[in-house]
Design a protein that fits this description.
Layout lengths: L3 H16 L5 E4 L3 H13 L4 E4 L7 H10 L5 E4 L14 E4 L6 H9 L12 E4 L6 H20 L2 H18 L1
Parallel strand pairs: 1-3, 1-4, 2-3, 4-5
Length: 174
Amino acid sequence: EIDTKYERLLGKLKEFFKDHPKQKVVLFAGFHATLNYLYERLQEDGIVPVLLTGHQGKEKYSIIKSFEESSEINILLASEVASEGIDLQFSRVIINYDLPWNPMKIEQRIGRLDRIGQVNESILIWNLLTGGTIDERIYERLYERLDVFQRSLGDLEAILGEKIGELTSSLLSG
């Protein structure tokens, strides 16, 4: 009867949409049952979602187009099928309802919004966790992995960012 994680999500969404009613939000979850649950609960609470899982097949791009163009649909509930090969730079907020063990999966999710064509100055990333649960352990483990990576190789953005910027500038300027 009481789902504190969902209640926290609902509260954050309502607060966000009150201040930014036209913004689009992308929520990732790893399990289809979770996405279906969120779809039903959000509808009951007056938030209009659209669902994108691997089950829609070729409808994937029409679902994304309707999400982008509809003034009524304000949240895309997506499985990992949406973490690769699609552009969602018209969205500003990404929610990780659950966290995958692999930090690259999170990077792929974020990469759907944080890309060339992003109209906002910055994107917001919300990671929902419940303390004392597997969520918290995954979160801590992800940070450990990212810290090991950064200590071993340094800040890749500082290393690669300047070079990629030069290449992009060169490519676009002809």
